[in-house]
Amino acid sequence: MRHLLALAAMITGIATLTTGGSAAPYAGTQCAGTITTTIDTGTATVGQPVTLTNVRSESGDMTGATMYGTITRVVRAGQGRPAQVQMTFNRLRLPNGTTYAINGVVTGMQTNTKNNAAKEAGGAVAGMLVGNMLLKTIFHASGGGLLGAAGGYLIAKNNRQNMTIPAGSVVRVELRSVRRQASH
To answer: Residue 89 pairs with which residues in a beta bridge?
Structure first.
């Protein structure tokens, strides 16, 4: 029994040495890595390359890898439309140079969205001024400021902000498929 345990430990050690300290990835592997460049939905484009460094598996058996992919969908923020970005990863390189073709789907990422409070306040003030001016000038009545402020606030409230994924943010990816690439 001891010989079998020693043999299993030796095989595991050899497998670890041949992969450079990282086990081979497999479908279903959950990974996390650091994005190298800032992505902003206001300027990002479909096909733009994306790189994650210091990629490690959730289990810890794969570390120090690099993942490559592209932006596959961008929705710019607008009136009633929140910003969205979708990335897909298609190549994984382990520290020892072994490369895998992958289908990696983002399952989570850190994003920043600007606060809309200043825009909402500005919309309310502008609406109040316009509403007050219109009601007094056209109908010679008061109360237009309150109606205009409410309308201006609601329009500004519905105007969404673009989102940013800052360089250095952690992006989580699930490997849906993995295929080892031939050595060159």
So the answer is: 69, 104
Main-chain phi, psi angles of 101, to 5 degrees: -85, 130
Contact indicator for 50, 71 with CB cutoff of 8 Å: yes
> In the predicted model, what is the mean pLDDT of residues 155-182?
83
Closest Cα partner for 173 from 31, 17, 62, 69? 31
Q: Give residue-wise pLDDT tens across range 36-72.
A: 999 999 999 999 999 999 999 999 999 999 999 999 9
Would you mind telling me the total number of residues written for the chain in this entry? 184
The token pair at 79 is 């009136």
What's the maximum distance between 2 C-alpha atoms anywhere in the chain? Answer: 99
**Placement of tokens 């095989």 in the chain:** 11
Q: Are 88 and 49 in contact (CB under 8 A)?
A: no
96, 19 contact by CB (below 8 A): yes
**CB half-sphere exposure, 12, CA atoms < 13 A:** 7
